[in-house]
């Protein structure tokens, strides 16, 4: 059963979970810790965990920043959808 979002409440979706899983795979593949990525982004490692689990959405600017850090196209995060 899907939860209904309250007005102005942001909810995560299956797409957010997919993007987060792609981020986790990329980060692990490069041998980067959540703490390191968090430091580069200016967020805590727990925030990186939330991104990777799809709990918190990645904004377009944050996704762009991550793509630049890992030197991959933004589309990389959406492959397989």
Secondary-structure element order, as H and E? HHHH
Radius of gyration: 13 Å
The CATH topology is given as 434 Repressor (Amino-terminal Domain)
Described by the principal axes of the CA atoms, the overall outline is: globular
Name the CATH superfamily assignment: lambda repressor-like DNA-binding domains
CATH architecture: Orthogonal Bundle
* Poorly predicted parts: none
Structural class: mainly alpha
Largest sheet: none
The CATH top-level class label: Mainly Alpha
Q: Tell me the number of structural domains.
A: 1
Q: Fraction of residues in helices?
A: 40-55%
pLDDT averaged over residues:
90
Topology, number of strands = 0
Roughly what fraction of the amino acids lie in strands? under 5%
Number of helices: 4
